[in-house]
Amino acid sequence: MKKVLRSVAILLLLVACNSITKQASKEQKPNIIVILLDDAGYVDFGFMGSKDLETPNIDALAKSGTVFTDAHVSATVCAPSRAGLMTGIYQQRFGFEANGTGDAHSGDLGLADDVTTMAEVLKEGGYTTIALGKWHLGGTPTDHPNQRGFDEFYGFLTGSRSYFPLENPNEYRMLQHNGKRIAFEGYMTDVLGDASVRYVKENKDSPFFMYLAYNAVHTPMHAKEEHLKKYEGHPRKELAAMTWSLDENIGKLQQELQSLGIAENTLIFFLSDNGGAHNNQSSSGPLKGWKGSKFEGGHRIPFVVSWPKKIEGGGMFEGLTSSLDIFATAVAAATIAPEELLQLDGVDLMPFLIGEKTGNPHKQLFWRKLEETAARSGDHKLIRLDDFGHVLYDLNKDLGETRDLSKERPQELNAILQKLESWEHTLLEPLWVEGRDWMDVTYHVHKQLMTNDTIHYKSPSGMKGYLEKQKNDGNN
User: Fold this and answer.
1) Could you tell me if residue 309 is inside a domain?
2) Residues 332 and 387 grouped into a single domain
3) Using one digit for the tens of pLDDT, what is the confidence trace for 251-290?
4) Are residue 145 and residue 76 in the same domain, yes or no?
5) What are the tens digits of pLDDT across the range 324-361?
6) What is the chain's alpha carbon radius of gyration, rounded to the nearest angstrom?
7) What is the DSSP string of 453-467?
8) Model's pTM, two decimal places?
């Protein structure tokens, strides 16, 4: 019944917007591509300032469009971040707050059945819809990409897997095409890059939406032998090799768009699903924290929007922006629906990119995963840790989040706390949690970062070793 109601809602939305679509029918709708990386470091691209990782094709993509300097995802870990991007609303509104897609108590819930995805709206609007790569939004039949708006799915359901073929993969780890296992040879990043080129060729004559979700540069740190040799002696050899392969494949896609004559009218969003991880050699540069933390290193990401036909290249935008904005921007560019009819938390970025609007697309943004919460209002950033307390930073003067101003600026603190409380009243209780070991690890990390103290462990195994050592030292 919920799926029926969702379909009816999409249909009514399209009927209400029929006049807008007719007005734009004389103009070819843009192709839309979302290139989503996995656990990429904030400064691990040439256009973001990297000096040791080579990304010429990604840098060219950035130069062709606008680079956002204050862009964020809606979660600091993979699955909730993808849920927010795909729906354009805070994922906590439908209970998708923790990583993974469920737990032993709840089962594999994944995306709520009554939430609308970007793919569903674009498909109803006449787009061919294609999902490639990592899904990580649920493994049950109702959450399969083919049931959530995608005509084609060529990828895998799980959150991580080997970059090389597996002998007997389960249904979540296997590479599949619309539910049928695909046996492949070679390297997963190449496989997904080749698939992106193939689908562009097949759909060049009509508008398409491609969600290209690479698992690079998530662990395991697997790279091709020739690329490992290329970076022999590099201090971040595996990451450099994986990044080079990623850049090669994004370059193949760019070249195919050019050769087919459709690059000018292709709207591309490029971003990472969260900050770099502590275990994949990534760098957060000037940012504090990493994947999983509510500090800037966990959710501030490299973000590029390119649409040569509409957006002048070489631009830079400093306004507060979210991955939630991709949905609103995409459907507006496709002339499918006014943003307000979709009731999205994201906003259409195009007026800002073409100079019709200035300033911040968002006055505030919020993040929450179980015990750790953050809020942004203007330049002020609040981080709250349950049963411990909160800190307040001025990011304009302290991007590294080192100086707590909560006692010096009580008025600003109370204002942002009120906004956070109002937002939390609109959310569901989390429908599942994470393992207690990971919750304890992230709690420790946040507590130590909030007090600018030493972090003793970053993983459950590290926590176990540290606590055992503390116990043994205490017995001596």
Assistant:
1) yes
2) no
3) 999 999 999 999 999 999 999 999 999 999 999 999 999 9
4) yes
5) 999 999 999 999 976 667 899 999 999 999 999 999 99
6) 22
7) -----SSHHHHHHHH
8) 0.95
